Automatic annotation (TrEMBL):
Residues 1-106 are annotated as: Disordered. Residues 114-141 form a coiled coil. Residues 1-10, 30-47, 65-81 have a biased composition (Basic and acidic residues). InterPro entries: SCOC. Keywords: Coiled coil. This is BZIP transcription factor.
Amino acid sequence: MATPKPEEARPITPTANVLKETVSPVTPEKTTEPEASSKDDDPERLSRPRSISRKSSGPLVVARSEPDVKTHTEYPPDDARGMSPRRSSAECEEMTMRTRASIRQKADTLQSGLDAITARIESVRAEYEQLEKNNLALQDYIGGLTRSMSSTTLQSSKVKK
């Protein structure tokens, strides 16, 4: 495709100039003069983005006489085209087996960790129950000592009177 030259390209004009062209087609020279003078001053033309040039993708049709036809292209690691290669069913099965084995190993590791945590919780619970029993026994003992002390102090105060 050939791009038009700047002289050949028709500039974007405001709608008022378009209406002038349609209303008075008899004098085309007069209608083009305002366009030419507003060519540099038109804010739409100045702010219009330039078209981006692309790299050629090469020929789409390859001649049969070409012996070297490149079918596989190497892509950078972050390119989406290179991220999902086609695999055979044997490769898929092998990947599935490796993934399942890895998941089973991780599950066993997690299960052993959970078993260790459960055993620790049970031992802490048993220690807590033992401490509660000992706490009750100490409270009873202290209560008995307090009562005996208060009774002995009452008796000694009565004897002194």
